[in-house]
Write a structure and sequence with these properties.
Elements: E1 6-12, H1 19-27, E2 34-40, H2 47-53, E3 59-63, H3 69-80, E4 85-88, E5 94-95, H4 99-109, E6 115-124, E7 128-131, H5 137-144, E8 156-158, H6 159-164, H7 177-185, E9 191-203, H8 210-230, H9 237-247, H10 256-272, H11 278-295, H12 303-307, H13 310-313, H14 320-336
Parallel strand pairs: 1-2, 1-4, 2-3, 6-9
Antiparallel strand pairs: 4-8, 5-9, 6-7, 6-8
Amino acid sequence: MSTPQVTILLPVLNAAATLPETLDSLLTQTFTDFELLVIDDGSTDDTPEILAAAADPRLRVLRNPERLKLAGALNRGLDEARAPLIARMDADDIARPERLARQVDFLAKHPKIALCGSFTRHFGAKEKARETYPVQAEDIRAFSLFNCPFAHPTVMFRAEVFKQHDLRYDGAYYPTEDYELWTRVVHRHPCANHPEVLLDYRVHEKSMTGSDWENMDFQARRLMQNQFAALGVPCTEAQSKINRDIGMARVPCVELPAARDWLAGLLDRNQKTPFCPAVALEQEIRERWFHVCMNARGPGPNRAALYASPEIWKGTKPPLSRTLLLKASILRASVRG
């Protein structure tokens, strides 16, 4: 049996309702030299029958004798994958017909890129024209300090790089195990996002409960602390909370000075002891700061004055268009109040 160019790694668990559409989107790709490696993590619905009925020689199904959960199933897939390129996929999303072709071509033309994701379109309970991500490696590194830089089911990566550094999913970070893994990849190797929608991402109604969000916040703060520590940047639990809130643009007005001081501290530290590409970090922090100031609510200091803080702008001025947008937002809030 010849070695395929791509292994599509697809974990499944009771996915009968959406799996046929997902399989069809993969088995009809314009790029055909792949194996579809499905890790069934103990499905009890019609998932095994759907997989058995999919008569395609490129499909390989492994059923876990006991549940390994998502990280364990993905790690088993990494061990079993035969191709030099591994493409992730989830059992409820839809790959655009050119998805594999675009990413294989991109990685062939950019041999130093270890991992390539793409933009997505949301459908289902939440329609959205598209979800964009940073494209260039330097911007991805800066973005990863505050949020996940890839849509997990869009990524394609080089198996050799992951084996070389023993890069695997850590289930202790569920449900942010992918984000935690990327923080260990993007600072070692250049990564990219293809600036095109290559996947339709299904959003389920009530897919996340309050406790899920609380755990996601907790795990995100943990991985952020670890990421900063690996980069030589001290980060307390309180600072990791501020950093997470900045990434989610949900800092209340009263905490804006602390958020500014944290961001300004990152800029100062990076200037003295670089841990991130300087221009990318500066642009990312200023973008985050704008959205934080726009979304801040409640009593506190003047948002417009804080937005123009010299600690953030370092001798330059914030864009006039953004300053005007912020002042208009403040005015509307005062009228409503």
